[in-house]
Amino acid sequence: MTGLTAIVAGATGLVGGECLRRLLAERRYARVIAVARRELGPELRHRKLRVVVANFDRLDRVQEELRGDHVFCALGTTIRKAGSQARFRVVDHDYPLRLAELTRSNGAQHFSIVSALGASRGSPFFYSRVKGDVEAALREMGWPSLAIFRPSVIAGERAESRPAERLGERLLRFAPATWRPVAACDIAAAMIGVALRSPPGVTVVESRHIGSTAGDRSRG
Question: What is the number of domains present in the chain?
């Protein structure tokens, strides 16, 4: 397991940023490719890092640069920030699936994605239906190893203001484990740990198990 190449999408976000930092520190990854809409800050400069600046609406234009072993997708927005349900679906559904299609055709063997608690194609809630649609489409691609992480509210310091999620963190702090907020650093650690094992087939990690999965990674 030496000399692996990781591809990260969503590195300017909370979970994606944690993934990027941990991948750069992980000796088993020789190269890390960050796919982003803009250049990353100078504090992230690293000898292993290559940034591919891309318009996600035209991701196929950089397909040749998306060659790696493990893909980490932490793309996501909110309906409020996207401006409409249609635009939200583009970011949270179309972009991840296009990334998966291009990297799979380039030979990637493992794909990890941040989904959401309650994701289901049959959900009465639009957000959860979109996440369920993504999961189903990824399953149909036949990835050798696919990992789906379904966190509840994601806890951590964001660069952007998301008051609803901040309120959710406070309200759910003492909720049952199923609903309790999950730290972004734990999600990232769990994603990398599962990727390094690359279990065959589909692995689904529910919110309440993300912390213990991250703990397995730290002990490994």
Answer: 1
